[in-house]
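I'd like us to work through together how a protein chain folds, taking it slowly. We need material for that, and I hope you will provide a protein of your own picking. Go ahead whenever you are ready, and we will take it from there:
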Amino acid sequence: MTKTMLTAFAACLFTGVFGTNAKADIMNGSGPAAPDPAMVVNAGWYGFCFAGPGGAATAGCQNAGIGVTGNDITFTVTTNVLFNVTDAFEKGDTFTVDINPGALTFTTDGVPVDPSGTTVDPNAAFADPTYSHGSWLLGPGTYTVDIFADAAPFGPGGAYAELVTAPVPEPSGILLLITAIALIGAGTRARKNFAKKAL
């Protein structure tokens, strides 16, 4: 009797574990659906898909990226970062980037439509002025970002987004800025003194 109960228990356990996974495999293709991975600062580019003009960024289209992302893209950062978006492949797609929806909205730069674009490397596309791209400085905090295709002359496609640490201004650059402000202030004072003497 104990052996029968053990066999029945093992059968139920096997069905409960492997049966559920088998069903999920049929429904999703590769097991239970997982949430989109969080974007990691300095990890690299994440691919996203869009379904044409007005289409939201959806997870998929990893292409040459390190992973995938899609709306809503959420992340928390403790330092200044740049949120970068770039088109790739055929040239001409542009994107609207909505940061903390309703708070800040940007659009990537417009470029001429060119079906001969073949760059799949997001770094090369981001550096190429003939591909639409944009970069936005974000301070420490928690963000939700939504990306939508603005212009999509070729219909559905793929593009990339990344988070990178913002460069810190070099001390010499800060010193130069302070010197320039001081010189402007000194010039303003000199003009005021000259005007008083002229009266």
